[in-house]
């Protein structure tokens, strides 16, 4: 095995060692389990079954009523979303995104985030008050309460709406709902006591999801399901793991409860979309996640501290609801300017977050800059620009590596002499070679450093391209209309010249009949190999000869943006290596090595 093979194996082993050491040194913190049946932390009601928050008040078990066509609604109309609020329960249960479509077809439907009960995969937000001492469950608004709108008109960034309900016993409940120009709702709940007795209650917000969402990816690199931030600790639980929560609540749902003392939020995240409950900063609250296996409902709750409203007083509670796309710039503004603690962590940055976060920040900056210059397909060019920056940062290591490789080529004749002199004495050969390296000041392991660093960078960029919304449906040039999807061209129809369609992207034929970008990737790897003569060992020569074409097919089904990066990386590496080797007095014979690779090798035993 020559030094290049050793370096490749070493780089692979070290990359796994980096991941292992990281998790040993920085293990994810474990959250203490909290029993939801403990009266001190009793949960808010399920969306379909409101109940009391203490053991002193019996639970109410009426299922939520499905809204009908006659159920009054308040329209939601902003520059970026459209939807409505049902006055039955005051649920925010219809919301779609004007700027996003489910596919790239011109007539494709816009993306729906929230849906009412009765629709497939119902998904909605519900707010209310959990009754405490001195008040019965029927005296607070629930899932089936019919609210009235104060005034009229639709909800817009300029015009919030207010709902009102009186319980007939001296308590008047109001709920003001506002929305900004993007995707953040602000819900202000208030209770006015015109009666003669005090009442205690806890304001809460609920996100309820009926069944798993359609189109669930179930891919190891992507988290979909529960997401929560609790005093700086991020929790991610997949949908399929929520039925395994530690405790049963009073209604039999599996639940986990976390006490948040300062800042936090909780909700559900999909591939590109997210909904989260966000109590006001500095407000302690109980963060609850549960799964109701009888009704197949996934639910998150944010239950604020119990408040007491005395006669003649009014109490209020404010919280926010985010429901929309995981746009990096928008979420970042909510974190920096809106005070939502660590909201950027709602994007799934993965194990290598220390790489994926800065990689995407640079990619986003380049994309915005190039788009501002009017460059079409700016995200594709941003990927190439990112590649140039990464190669520039790694250039000092690459320079040392290529200088060492050039010197190693110069030492080949001396190494051959040492092999002949040592014969079968492997120990003597290793000793003599180490002395030669020391004398010539050559480090044979330095060649693996660029490879070692490229592995986590490549994986991190793969993660960024796969999970971030900004790459979704991002065009580049010509036939590349979605950098997050594989190259749509195919040799099956000679890249569109023959009159039949490309094979289905999920079929085996799509893996065989690859597109233009994977072919360019294979060629760029093959040319990079030709900077050096083929290994003298026939087995090694065969492995190296096949490697570019194996990678060509392996990466053929990867996202186009990732293949663009790899092609750019190979091209820059080829140029750097060629120039550095020339500067060290070694002239790579690229064309000679290409000719040599096409020469037929004589058969063993030929005369």
From TrEMBL:
| Taxonomy, superkingdom | Bacteria
Q: Name the residues that span the membrane.
A: 7-26, 379-399, 508-527, 548-568
Q: Which residues form a coiled coil?
A: none
Ranges of biased composition (kind: Polar residues): 46-56
Q: Where is the Membrane insertase YidC/Oxa/ALB C-terminal domain?
A: 379-582
| Pfam families associated with the record | 60KD_IMP, YidC_periplas
Ranges for the region named Disordered are: 35-58
Q: Please tell me where this protein is predominantly located.
A: membrane
Q: Which UniProt keywords apply?
A: Cell membrane, Chaperone, Membrane, Protein transport, Transmembrane, Transmembrane helix, Transport
Membrane topology field: Multi-pass membrane protein
* CDD domains linked to this entry: 5TM_YidC_Alb3, EcYidC-like_peri
Q: Which residues form the Membrane insertase YidC N-terminal domain?
A: 73-361
Please state where this protein is localized.
Cell inner membrane; Cell membrane
Q: Which NCBIfam families match?
A: PRK01318.1-4 (NF002353), yidC_nterm (TIGR03593), yidC_oxa1_cterm (TIGR03592)
Read off the HAMAP family from this record: YidC_type1 (MF_01810)
Briefly, what is this protein's role? Required for the insertion and/or proper folding and/or complex formation of integral membrane proteins into the membrane. Involved in integration of membrane proteins that insert both dependently and independently of the Sec translocase complex, as well as at least some lipoproteins. Aids folding of multispanning membrane proteins.
Family that this chain belongs to: Belongs to the OXA1/ALB3/YidC family. Type 1 subfamily.
Tell me, how does this one assemble? Answer: Interacts with the Sec translocase complex via SecD. Specifically interacts with transmembrane segments of nascent integral membrane proteins during membrane integration.
Q: What is this protein called?
A: Membrane protein insertase YidC
Question: Where does this protein come from, organism-wise?
Answer: Seohaeicola saemankumensis
Query: Upper taxonomic classification of the species?
Result: Bacteria, Pseudomonadati, Pseudomonadota, Alphaproteobacteria, Rhodobacterales
């Amino acid at each position: 095995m020559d030094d290049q093979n050793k370096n490749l194996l070493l780089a692979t082993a070290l990359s796994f060692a980096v991941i292992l050491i990281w998790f040993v040194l920085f293990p994810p913190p474990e959250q203490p389990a909290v029993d939801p049946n403990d009266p001190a932390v009793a949960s808010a009601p399920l969306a379909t079954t409101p109940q009391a928050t203490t053991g002193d008040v019996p639970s109410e078990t009426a299922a939520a009523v499905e809204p009908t066509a006659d159920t009054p609604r308040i329209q939601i109309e902003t520059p970026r979303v459209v939807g409505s609020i049902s006055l039955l329960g005051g649920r925010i249960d219809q919301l779609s995104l004007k700027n996003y479509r489910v596919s790239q077809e011109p007539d494709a439907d816009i993306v729906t985030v929230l849906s009412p009960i009765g629709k497939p995969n119902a998904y909605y937000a519900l707010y209310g008050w959990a009754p405490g001492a001195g008040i019965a469950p029927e005296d607070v608004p629930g899932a089936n309460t019919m609210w009235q709108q104060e005034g009229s008109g639709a909800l817009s960034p300029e015009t919030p709406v207010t709902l009102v309900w009186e319980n007939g016993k001296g308590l008047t409940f109001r709920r003001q709902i506002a929305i900004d120009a993007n995707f953040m709702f602000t819900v202000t709940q208030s209770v006015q006591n015109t009666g003669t007795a005090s009442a205690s209650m806890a304001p809460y917000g609920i996100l309820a999801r009926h069944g798993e969402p359609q189109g669930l990816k179930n891919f190891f690199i992507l988290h979909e399901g529960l997401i929560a931030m609790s005093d700086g600790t991020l929790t991610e639980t997949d949908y399929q793991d929520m039925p395994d929560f530690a405790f049963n609540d009073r209604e039999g749902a599996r639940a986990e409860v976390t006490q948040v003392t300062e800042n936090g939020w909780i909700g559900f995240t999909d591939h590109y979309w997210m909904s989260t409950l966000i109590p006001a900063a500095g407000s302690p609250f109980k963060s609850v996640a549960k799964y109701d296996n009888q009704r197949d409902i996934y639910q998150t709750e944010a239950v604020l501290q119990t408040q007491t409203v005395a006669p003649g007083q009014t109490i209020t509670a404010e919280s926010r609801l985010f429901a929309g796309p995981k746009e990096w710039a928008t979420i970042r503004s909510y974190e920096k300017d809106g005070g939502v603690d660590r909201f950027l962590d709602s994007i799934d940055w993965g194990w290598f977050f220390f790489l994926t976060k800065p990689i995407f920040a640079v990619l986003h900056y380049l994309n915005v800059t190039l788009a501002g210059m009017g460059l079409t397909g700016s995200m594709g060019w941003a990927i190439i620009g990112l590649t140039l920056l990464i190669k520039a940062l790694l250039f000092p290591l690459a320079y040392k590596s290529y200088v060492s490789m050039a010197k190693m080529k110069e030492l080949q004749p001396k190494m051959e002499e040492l092999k002949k002199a040592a014969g079968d004495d492997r120990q003597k050969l290793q000793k003599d070679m180490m002395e030669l390296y020391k004398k010539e000041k050559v480090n044979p392991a330095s060649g693996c450093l660029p490879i070692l660093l490229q592995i986590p960078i490549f994986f991190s960029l793969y993660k960024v391209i796969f999970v971030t919304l900004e790459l979704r449906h991002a065009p580049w040039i010509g036939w590349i209309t979605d950098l997050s999807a594989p190259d749509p061209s195919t040799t099956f129809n000679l890249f569109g010249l023959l009159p039949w369609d490309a094979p289905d992207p999920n079929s085996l034929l799509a893996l065989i009949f690859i597109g233009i970008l994977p072919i360019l990737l294979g060629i760029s790897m093959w040319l990079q190999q030709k900077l050096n003569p083929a290994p003298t060992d026939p087995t090694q020569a065969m492995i190296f000869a096949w490697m570019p074409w194996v990678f060509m097919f392996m990466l053929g089904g990867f996202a186009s943006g990732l293949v663009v990066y790899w092609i750019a990386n190979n091209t820059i590496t080829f140029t750097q290596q060629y120039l550095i080797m020339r500067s060290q007095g070694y002239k790579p014979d690229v064309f000679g090595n290409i000719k040599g690779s096409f020469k037929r090798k004589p058969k063993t035993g030929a005369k």
